[in-house]
Design goal:
With 82 residues, the chain is α+β, with helices and mostly antiparallel strands. The chain is built from 1 helix and 3 strands. It has a 3-stranded antiparallel sheet, with no helix packed on it. The radius of gyration is 30 Å and the shape is elongated.
């Protein structure tokens, strides 16, 4: 299993490794193969939020036209029996 690690010379010294750089470490036989890590893929640009197209009242009106009915909350809620 391969792992991408960041070099830390204070923990372990490996010849040719630059402190703070990223390396791909792969087990091979009884040892390890260390090579520079591939460049990470660029992340896609984030989209800006443009805001809602309609406000909540317009959404509720549209749902009411489709048959949604809202009942008022009871004034006193019964206690739980459990």
């Amino acid at each position: 299993m391969s792992s991408i690690v960041k070099a830390d010379k204070q923990r372990l010294t490996v010849r040719g490794v630059v402190d703070g750089h990223r390396y791909l470490v792969t087990p091979q036989g009884v040892g390890w193969w260390v090579e520079p890590a591939p460049e990470p893929k660029p992340r896609p640009a984030r989209r800006q939020w443009v805001g809602p197209k309609r406000d909540l009242a317009e959404h509720l009106d549209a749902l009411a036209k489709l048959g949604l009915t809202l009942t008022p909350k009871p004034k006193e809620v019964p206690s739980c029996r459990f």
